[in-house]
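Retro notes, structure queue

What went well: the backlog is down to a handful. What didn't: a couple of records were mislabeled last round, so from now on we paste the full input next to the output in the thread. Example, using Glycolate oxidase from Pandoraea fibrosis:
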Amino acid sequence: MTDTNDTLEAFRAVIEHATARRAPLQLRGGGTKAWYGQQRVGDVLDTRAYRGIVAYDPAELVITARCGTPLADIETALAERNQLLPFEPPYFGPGATIGGAVAAGLAGPRRSAVGAVRDFVLGAKLMDGRGHVLNFGGQVMKNVAGYDVSRMLAGSLGTLGLVLEVSIKVLPQPFAELTLQFEMNAVDAVRKLNEWGGQPLPITGSAWRNDLLVIRLAGASAAIKAARVKMGGELVDAIHAAKFWHAIREQTDNFFADAGPGQALWRLAVPSTAEPHRLPGKQLIEWGGAQRWWITDADAQIVRSAARQDGGHATLFRYGEPGVGVFTPLPAPLMRIHRNLKSVFDPAGIFNPGRMYPEF
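Corresponding output:
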């Protein structure tokens, strides 16, 4: 057997033993997102031994890698061919892996311009609760009939099974990039973002906080030059801009560090046109107005009610009180679908139980 086969057999033995005893397992790579989600119970199954880039075809814009492959290794390989992971997955610390990035389903500033993690997952290899290795999707965009399981794994937090391998669609790096900033309040920023969002402008990132709106433009040099003339604003130094967008993606910006006693960081997903909320605390607005970060001591019901009134939902991202659900409760029909899927892939309920909802 090869080393990778030995690793797979070791994973299978652990999973089969856990299933036989109905003992929970924590599926974990670098552990940089272990705080995200609800309870973590059971022994840790460390995925980092199963690593390596399996295939990379720059001409076809597809990379396939094992779950324990460090994100840094993948981005380094892509950068050598002037390509990138379009959704800008946050690391949240050293050791982040591609399996963890897909399982968490979190994206950075570019998400509003290109799409979510699931939009770039072409295929996946999964080990289910019986120790069986299942293949879904492939390495092309149109290859799915029925449930698109490979994309469904994005954001599932390892509750359906051990993602062994993923194939990801990548994109070329932009030819040029620059960042502009504008002084304006939250209401004006949301209106301006929606105005610009309806125009053919090469916006690949937006962030407002502390009465300052920052916009990233990327693409062809001519398009960026025309957009800058049309939008105006103050040019941000390239080095400072790179540090800013990295801090927004990794949540090392001062905004995220300023949670006080009793405060929590909430992530609100709302229509981009929703007016800024007037909850106590402070906010940061991203994704053209569609993602609102809120640091507040307001009650969870108040925050979720505010998001619901705007046609969205709220996730308790960090620093919350014990017992407050992280994710917005699902309607009964959707919860039933989730439970049914869980029972198909993980009949003994061993994979990250309770990580998303108490029911699975």
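Agreed that this is the format going forward. Reviewer comment attached to the example: The longest strand covers residues 162-169.
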